[in-house]
Design brief:
With 152 residues, this protein is mainly α. The chain has one domain. The protein is rod-shaped and about 95 Å long. The chain starts with 10 loop residues before the first helix and ends with a helix.
Length: 152
């Protein structure tokens, strides 16, 4: 007979439910009775391996879906951090300019301006993908503005 190629089906290997490992398993373990139970457990292990390989393939498909979802989620987070930082920067600068002309102490417009600068840095970091740091800087910037407003 000719040698089998990779394109030909491997039916002769799959047809033998008790593979070479299972035939030698009772001899190597030293168990004289109940050789059928060890053969069944070995065979079910083979089926478990097939199930695991199918599960691995399905995980790979899900990972591909999650990767696309993660990229979309990251893009949304960057845009949100950038837009929120820009909005808070404009609000802080507007409040600083409004308070600058009034009778408020100099600390108040300075606090609004400093909070606006912190929010501008947060917007920049958010646009570069550093959304976690941008979030904390946005919180810090708003807190600086709030403390400045309390000084009035």
């Amino acid at each position: 007979m000719s040698a089998r190629t990779d394109s030909e089906p491997r039916g002769d290997i799959d047809d033998d439910p008790a593979g070479p490992d299972e035939k030698s398993a009772p001899d190597s373990s030293g168990a004289s009775g109940d050789s059928g139970a060890s053969g069944d457990s070995g065979h079910s292990g083979d089926l478990g391996d097939d199930d695991e390989s199918e599960a691995d393939e399905s995980d790979e498909d899900e990972d591909g879906e999650y990767d696309a979802y993660d990229h979309e989620e990251a893009r949304r987070a960057r845009w949100t951090a950038t837009a929120t930082g820009a909005l808070l920067t404009l609000a802080g600068l507007a409040a600083s300019l409004m308070r600058l002309g009034g009778t408020a102490p100099a600390l108040v417009p300075a606090a609004y301006a400093l909070g606006a600068v912190v929010c501008a840095v947060a917007a920049f970091l958010g646009s570069r993908g550093r959304t976690r740091r941008a979030l904390w800087l946005l919180i810090a910037g708003v807190m600086v503005m709030a403390f400045g407003d309390q000084a009035d």
